[in-house]
Specification:
By secondary structure, the protein is α/β, with parallel strands linked by helices. The protein is built from 21 helices and 21 strands. It has three domains: 117 residues, 2-Layer Sandwich (Beta-Lactamase), CATH 3.30.450.20; 162 residues, Reverse transcriptase/Diguanylate cyclase domain (Alpha-Beta Plaits, 2-Layer Sandwich); 236 residues, EAL domain (TIM Barrel), CATH 3.20.20. It binds ligand C2E and magnesium ion (MG) (2 copies).
């Protein structure tokens, strides 16, 4: 056995010195006045300054004149605690010479040597631990897809504002309309890409007084605004709505997103977080149930909707069975002669207790509850029967039926339409199908196939509400339409507004260039009719010629129409 030789003080000193130089932790020695006396290699590497530069400089330091108020107070704290206890430790974010922020654990110890006071400091880089912690915190507090604060953060921030500042605020809930349909048609990954773009656009709006913008999940977003003036909040809400008017491009396809927005306001709508959220939610649901694409501020009347949504669904199903949906007919006329060229069939619901209901009262619910095809069938049978009756009276006008994209995707749609022409003695060109621009939004492959097949069958196709969506022109090129129906919103201002009349003129020219016919919707005055005629528009419909009426009155109109056998085709 070899003999044990105790270490000599000078060797021990040498070894500890070596060890100190190899340590991963940064070590430094300060004098009684907290000035640097020595630093190890790890410290030099971490901070970016070498020992000769540091020596004699005060803790905190190398650029003391740039210390912030907060840093000065921390240094004072360190100094006081070292005087009192001889020990201090804390976690700091240190900015090094190269501008990098290091998250560190720093400890200081008072040590006496030769009756002189020294302070030894140790710095451990805990950046990776802090990063891990930050990542976990981020995961817990943010939506993974968009990186926005999640529901928890939204609730807590809103609560803080309500509890602490009593600041007037508005709570805004935003949902994307037809989100489920988007997922079914585009797939979750594509919808996720849309959502990211949607969020980027909202961020790009740089909304004023926005305190928190949160992704509550799926298509659900929350915004908290400081309320200083109602005008400002309305302006910001307008920006949100306008933002959706530009298409979102996905794999070179244009997609239109519409949003529904519900708003509640503190203090008017309550002072509890839960009731304010509840009311914003109620306003949001109200906006959605009434067709979406709208902003609703909460008011107490929303609490008593005319028909509860579940009851409405039951009633709609009963209405299908009991055949309560009836076709009303609005005449379409040749503008120069006033002769009826056809009719547009518009659904009315003969409700057992509430009277005759308009489409605005139930069409959205029909789509929502997937009853579109049932409604279409019921309307189509009535129209086919009516066409046969008129045919027997020698009236050969066509009838337009309105459709929604949801109907086209029904597997039996095409067969049903083509069977109509064998079941009833009517010609395919007597049936026109109107498709709204908004229902083409998704550009679902089956819609295009169905339209091409219907056209091949001889059915005439009309693009309804033309000009209300941004993709109008591309729809015209992409789908085989025969007619363009210029939306009422353009016709309304055509007499007084030169821009509107210039737009209508351009649409009419475009229709000619594309070999299509144009029909003006919503003509209410003689001046509108005259101006349209001057511009070269041949066909129109509107209250000035006749409101939608039941079949019997439509027949009377036909009888009085001077040239009853004229048809567009
Ligand atoms: P739309 O197809 O654009 O029909 C025109 C709407 O404008 C009709 O409203 C009509 O009554 C109204 N209108 C026509 N001329 C004038 C006018 O001069 N002034 C004013 N102020 N309004 C006029 P209605 O019947 O309430 O229908 C609203 C919408 O409901 C229709 O718009 C259509 O998109 C939809 N719709 C109607 N029937 C059906 C249906 O059977 N199936 C489907 N899927 N949708 C339908
Ligand atoms: Mg229509
Ligand atoms: Mg229309």
């Amino acid at each position: 056995m070899t003999t044990f030789v105790p270490i000599s003080p000078s060797i021990k000193q040498q070894l500890l010195l070596e060890l100190c130089e190899c340590l991963e932790d940064a070590v430094f020695i300060l004098d009684a006045n907290l000035r640097y006396m020595s630093v190890n290699a790890a410290y030099e590497a971490m901070i970016g300054f070498e020992e000769p530069f540091m020596i004699g400089r005060p803790l905190g330091i190398y650029a003391a004149e740039f210390l912030s108020e907060k840093e000065r107070s921390i240094l004072q704290d360190i100094s006081n605690q070292l005087d009192d206890d001889g020990f201090y430790e804390n976690n700091f974010a240190l900015l090094n010479r190269y501008g990098r922020t290091l998250n560190c654990h720093i400890s200081y110890r008072r040590i006496y040597a030769d009756e002189t006071v020294y302070y030894v400091g140790m710095v451990r880089d805990i950046s990776s631990v802090v990063e891990d912690q930050q990542q976990v915190a981020h995961l817990l507090n943010h939506n993974q897809l968009t990186g926005l604060p999640n529901r928890k953060v939204f609730l807590s921030q809103t609560n803080d504002v309500l509890m602490d500042s009593f600041q007037e605020v508005v709570i805004i809930r935003v949902n994307i309309d037809r989100y489920r349909i988007l997922i079914n048609n585009l797939g979750q990954d594509n919808v996720d890409a849309l959502i990211k773009e949607f969020v980027a656009r909202i961020n790009g709006l740089e909304l004023n007084q926005l305190l928190c913008f949160s992704h509550l999940g799926g298509d659900d977003f929350g915004l908290l605004f400081e309320f200083t003036d109602a005008h400002m909040v309305r302006h910001e809400l307008d920006s949100l709505m306008h933002m959706c008017e530009r298409p979102f491009v996905l794999n070179s396809t244009s997609i239109y997103l519409q949003i529904s927005v519900g708003v509640s306001y503190y203090p008017k709508d309550g002072n509890q977080l839960s009731s304010l959220l509840n009311k914003a939610e109620k306003a949001l649901q109200y906006a959605k149930e009434h067709g979406g694409d709208d902003v609703w501020w909460y008011n107490d009347e929303l609490n008593c909707p005319s028909i509860d949504s579940m009851q409405l669904e039951t009633e709609l199903r009963e209405a299908i069975v009991a055949k309560q949906f009836i076709a009303y007919y609005q005449p379409k006329v040749a503008l120069d002669t006033g002769v009826i060229t056809g009719f547009e069939a518009l659904v009315r619901w003969q409700h057992p207790t509430r009277g005759l209901l308009q489409p605005k009262d139930f069409i959205e619910a029909i789509i929502k509850h997937k009853l579109s095809f049932d409604l279409f069938r019921q309307m189509a049978f009535q129209i086919a029967e009516q066409l046969c009756i008129w045919e027997s009276m020698n009236f050969t006008q066509h009838v337009c039926i309105n459709t929604d994209a949801a109907e086209f995707s029904h597997p039996e749609f095409f067969d049903f339409v083509s069977n109509l022409f064998t079941q009833y003695s009517i010609q395919p060109h007597q049936l026109h199908i109107e498709v709204t621009e908004s229902s083409l939004m998704l550009r679902h492959a089956s819609v295009k196939q169905q339209l091409i097949a219907l056209k091949a069958l001889g059915v005439c196709l009309a693009l309804d509400d033309f000009g209300t969506g941004y993709a109008s022109l591309s729809y015209l090129q992409e789908y085989p339409f025969d007619f363009i129906k210029i939306d009422k919103s353009f016709i309304d201002k055509i007499v007084d507004n030169r821009t509107q009349s210039a737009i209508v003129k351009a649409i009419l020219d475009l229709a000619i260039a594309l070999d299509m016919s144009a029909i003006a919707e919503g003509i209410e005055t003689e001046q509108q009719r005259d101006l349209l005629l001057q511009m070269g528009c041949k066909y129109g419909q509107g209250y000035w010629f006749g409101r939608p009426v039941c079949a019997d009155i439509a027949t009377k109109m036909l009888r009085h129409s001077s040239l009853p056998n004229t048809d567009l085709n």
